[in-house]
Specification:
The protein is α/β, with parallel strands linked by helices and about 180 residues long. The protein has one domain: Alpha/beta knot, CATH 3.40.1280. About 35% of the residues lie in helices and about 20% in strands. It contains 6 helices and 7 strands. The chain has a 7-stranded parallel β-sheet, with helices on both faces. Strand 2, helix 3 and strand 3 form a beta-alpha-beta unit. The radius of gyration is 15 Å and the shape is globular. The two termini are about 20 Å apart.
């Protein structure tokens, strides 16, 4: 089934993407983000604020071991994570519905750059002071009556789109 061993995953080329969780409460959502990040070769996950860190049984329940394969860091404050990313030349996007946001399907990425996306708290979203530090905001187009998605669903959609736009490995997405 072309699955990598955990050892092979560690050395596999990753897409230049860091996923930042800003005060995500649900351990199941954290685990799901780890699992999706493993599936699409995300460079790292940054866990910030009240976001729980591995090892934890509830994270493992949905991560299924991805919390042990995907690199991760903890930051007490999301602002610190953003400053670290910017110091290391990442373009940082909050995933938020705000005036002037870029629709996900319209986002243009450069294979030579590194990116980070910030997913927010299940109720409050990404902190406004964190949004203010970002290079921009990305919004997922939605057409129904509910214009919000679960954070792990949002993460899955965003990570998949970023993978499609950033992966340049021969054979993975190439026709």
């Amino acid at each position: 089934m072309n699955r990598l061993s955990p050892e092979a995953f560690k050395t596999e080329k990753k897409i230049p993407l860091v996923v930042v969780l800003d005060n995500v409460r649900s351990l199941h959502n954290v685990g799901a983000i780890f699992r999706t990040s493993d599936a699409f070769l995300v460079e790292s996950v940054y866990l910030c604020g009240i976001t729980c860190t591995p090892p934890h049984a509830e994270i493992h329940k949905t991560a299924l071991g991805a919390e042990n394969t995907v690199e991760w860091k903890y930051f007490e404050d999301t602002h610190q994570a953003v400053e670290t990313l910017k110091t290391n030349h990442y373009t940082v996007f909050a995933i938020e519905q705000v005036f002037g946001s870029t629709m996900l399907n319209d986002i243009q990425l450069d294979h030579k750059k590194k990116y980070a996306v910030i997913l927010g708290n299940e109720v409050k979203g990404v902190q406004q002071t964190v949004v203010d530090l970002c290079d921009g905001c990305i919004e997922i187009p939605q057409h129904g009556t509910k214009h919000s998605l679960n954070v792990s669903v949002t993460g899955g959609i965003i990570i998949w789109e970023m993978f499609k736009k950033l992966d340049n490995s021969p054979g993975i997405l190439a026709p």
